[in-house]
Each structure stands twice: as structure tokens, then as C-alpha cells.
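Collaborator request log, item 7. Partner lab (contact: R.S.) asked for a structural prediction of NADH-quinone oxidoreductase subunit E to inform their binding assays.
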Amino acid sequence: MSHEEGAVVGATYPPEVRERLERDAKEIIGRYPKPRSALLPLLHLVQSEDGYVSDAGHEFCAEMLGLSKAEVVGVSTFYTMYKRRPMGEYHVGVCINTLCAVMGGDQIWDELSEHVGVGHDETTPDGKVSLERLECNAACDFAPVMMVNWEFFDNQTPDSAKQLVDDLRDGKDVTPTRGPKRLCTFKEASRVLAGLSDGLAGEGPSAAGASLEGLKVAKANGWKAPEAP
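Returned to partner:
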């Protein structure tokens, strides 16, 4: 269901959507000793419904957690992972932090943004792709790195980045460099971030290449971490 179909009707969800969200929200809230601690995953939950945190999403979180709407908005607008307008089916992040930048990340961003015709946190008219300038993907050994719905695409170039986005827009099968074999949508990724499993967490390698070199050296030399006292 798109956010146009299901989200904002006087800042409320339709009954069938509300029932489904309440069921998931209660499961999430039950994991925490204090309900308000569940705010971050609940924001991901409503983002999985609408593709961004809508006004209806703010109202829902506030009601479920006994918070004011102002408290919820204050949190959702602090973190960049919560979006203020609809993102694309595939949210593409380009790392432009120091190492990725000097390895080509800045050039990738410039060429990709021009190629797609949108800028930071903007979405293509067909709703397929949105772009974001990311400060760090925590994968410097694979620089320059991109992410699509928070899955890694390592060792990118301007040409490979543009081809990746073209393939996404054309509906072709695209496989992340590491992790699951299937690339989820932005809404599906938000649902996983809410703490609701898609069953793919153990699929594919999470680390490879240079990331494992230190571990190999440690094993070869018999090094171990100090034991706790």
C-alpha cells in the first residue's frame, strides 16, 4: 500500500492499517521495560508503512507510547534515518566521508546526482530511487562505498553507480556485495530496523576481504583478546 492510499486522513490511519500497526507496535513495545524506550523502532515501523514519517505516523507513535506529539517530532527530526518526505523504493546512499571521498565518493555523488536528476533526500518522479549523501557507511576498507536500503555495494565507480541505479529503475535483479541475496525495498528495510525480522539476517557474508585481515594475522600469531578479570 502506498502512502497516498494508506496514510494520512486527518493525521490518522485507516482502520485496517491502524489494526495492523497496533499489533506490530505492541510486540515491539513489549520488549522494553518502559514504553517510551520503543520510540525509535516505532518510528521505523511507521516509516515502513508510508516511506517516511508522516503526520499520521507521529500521531500513532505518540498515542501508543503516551507521549506528546511534540516529543515524537523532536526525536524523528533529530535523526537522519527518519525521513520527512516520501523516499524512493530504493534509497541510495553515497558515502562522502573522508576516505570514500578521496577514493572517488565525491565524484560518484556529483555524477550520480546529475545522472538521476535529484539531490540529497530527493526522489525521482517515478518514485523508484531517492539519493542521500552519507557521512560514513562504516566500510572504509571497501571505499568508495554505496548503500541501497542499507545494504552494501562496495568498491564503486561513477559508471558502476550509474549502472546500479539504472538497473534498479528498470526492475532488474540487483544483489548486494555482502549480505542477503535479495535486495529489499526501503519500506521493508524500515520494518527490519523496527525489529521485525524478514528472515534474511543470516544470509550471505557480512564481512569479507580487508575486513578480515586483522583477524587472520591474530589467528596466525595465536593472539587473543585479554580475558575479563
